[in-house]
């Protein structure tokens, strides 16, 4: 590939040095360095942007309506918990701060009693994004706090939520070969370019993972060369969330599949995707440190490991249905009756439709889990087993 396509020179040198020292590194380690190296990883680079000027769009930067509708859900959670004097919202990975700004502004205006009890916390791994969040959210002063992942953190009553976070956790990449899993490692070819090599699978946690999500690889009929991913990081992440939550809810929104679809023999190339300047491709060895690398989320893993850690699965649904249950349909109808600037009205109408597009954002999964708490959303059907 052309030199200019390879990525950030300092990061490339760091990764190549580790490969030469070890002979090869796991794809998990490669992805962790590419995304989260403290100086040159994608999420820590000063140039990193989310939104129209960045590499990808999220629901929250598309329109304020997304965050306002989430606020409607948070208010219902507060009411379901019998209006505690302090209701904590902990946002995991807050991007540019779009959700936090809107939730605080909208709740202060529309739900003053809820706002009076609200404590907003952000846990952000990226120093670059945290600095931008602090600048944008400075007007909210002591109503907003940044917290670390410390296990000694005080337990909270409220909701821990994330939007498009879990898909960016580093993953183990596997290949089926000769009737067994092999793990994909990254090495260097004689010309110094990245190349993949297969190594025996030695991590017992991966076998335990498949057993937990109900997949028996030997019975799937995989052909040699079948590839997939396993996101082991979501396990300690869920455990930490449950330990930090005294009473309340965990809300996770992301793109993914239930395990039986994720690990179906027909999905032979896995789900790994890269995003560079709003272009999607499947080569993680280009633009290293300058592009996002993601893998779809195993929704079954979210629910089953959550249950192991004391999180009851309340709803598994699609973003389109979840937002409609919170009032997006009413907003669409109201928008049609607005007499105002035509261009603004058209743009908002298009954004609302994008939030519920079943082939796009509307097809994302919403997983709502509870700990010593339940939530009645009558507009949503009972738990759909087909979705997990």
What does the secondary structure layout of this molecule look like, with pairings?
Elements: H1 9-22, E1 25-26, H2 27-36, H3 59-62, H4 64-80, E2 87-92, H5 98-110, H6 112-117, E3 118-123, H7 127-136, E4 144-146, E5 156-163, E6 172-177, E7 180-188, E8 194-200, H8 204-213, E9 227-230, H9 234-244, E10 245-254, E11 256-257, H10 259-262, E12 273-276, E13 279-281, E14 292-294, E15 297-298, H11 299-308, E16 312-318, H12 319-325, H13 328-336, H14 342-355, E17 365-371
Parallel strand pairs: 2-3, 2-5, 3-4, 5-10, 11-15
Antiparallel strand pairs: 1-7, 6-7, 6-9, 7-8, 10-17, 12-13, 12-14, 16-17
Helix pairs in contact: 4-5, 9-11, 13-14
Counted beta strands: 17
Please count the helical segments. 14
Largest sheet: 7 strands, mixed
Mean pLDDT: 91
* Rg (C-alpha, Å): 21 Å
* CATH arch. level architecture of the largest domain: 3-Layer(aba) Sandwich
What is the strand content?
15-25%
What are the segments in which pLDDT stays under 50 over at least 5 consecutive residues? none
Write down the CATH topology of the largest domain. Answer: Rossmann fold
| Number of separate structural domains | 2
What's the multimeric state? single chain
- Name the structural class: alpha/beta
Supply the CATH class of the largest domain.
Alpha Beta
Q: Helicity range of the residues? A: 25-40%
Q: How far apart, in Å, are the first and last alpha carbons? A: 40 Å
Strand numbers in spatial order across the main sheet = 4-3-2-5-10-17-16
**Apparent shape:** globular
């Amino acid at each position: 590939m052309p030199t200019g396509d390879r990525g950030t020179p300092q990061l490339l040198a760091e990764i190549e040095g580790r490969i030469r020292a070890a002979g090869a590194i796991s794809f998990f380690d490669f992805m962790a360095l590419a995304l989260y190296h403290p100086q040159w990883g994608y999420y820590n680079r000063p140039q990193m942007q989310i939104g129209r000027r960045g590499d990808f769009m999220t629901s929250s930067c598309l329109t304020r309506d997304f965050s306002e509708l989430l606020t409607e859900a948070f208010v219902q959670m507060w009411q379901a918990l019998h209006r505690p004097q302090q209701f904590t919202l902990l946002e995991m990975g807050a991007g540019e701060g779009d959700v936090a700004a809107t939730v605080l502004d909208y709740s202060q205006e529309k739900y003053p009693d809820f706002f009076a009890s609200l404590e907003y916390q952000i846990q952000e791994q990226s120093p670059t994004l945290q600095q931008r969040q602090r600048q944008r959210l400075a007007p909210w002063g002591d109503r907003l706090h940044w917290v670390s992942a410390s296990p000694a953190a005080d337990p909270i009553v409220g909701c821990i939520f994330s939007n498009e976070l879990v898909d960016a956790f580093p993953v183990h990449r596997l290949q089926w070969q000769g009737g067994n899993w092999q793990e994909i490692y990254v090495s260097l070819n004689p010309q110094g370019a990245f190349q993949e090599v297969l190594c025996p699978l030695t991590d017992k946690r991966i076998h335990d993972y498949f057993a937990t999500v109900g997949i028996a690889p030997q019975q799937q009929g995989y052909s040699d060369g079948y590839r997939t991913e396993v996101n082991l990081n979501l396990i300690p992440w869920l455990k930490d969330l449950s330990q930090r939550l005294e009473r309340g809810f965990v809300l996770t929104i992301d793109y993914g599949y239930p395990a039986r679809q994720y690990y179906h023999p027909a999905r032979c190339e896995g789900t790994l995707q890269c995003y560079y300047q709003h272009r999607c491709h499947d080569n993680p060895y280009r633009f290293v440190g300058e592009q996002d690398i993601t893998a779809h989320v195993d929704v079954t893993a979210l629910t089953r490991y959550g249950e192991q850690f004391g999180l009851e699965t309340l709803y598994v649904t699609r973003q389109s249905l979840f937002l409609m249950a919170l009032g997006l349909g009413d907003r669409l109808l109201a928008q049609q009756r607005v007499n105002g600037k035509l261009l603004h009205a058209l743009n908002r109408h298009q954004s609302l439709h994008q939030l519920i597009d079943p082939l796009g954002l509307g097809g994302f999964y919403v997983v709502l889990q509870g700990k010593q708490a339940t939530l009645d959303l009558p507009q949503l059907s009972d738990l759909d087993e087909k979705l997990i």
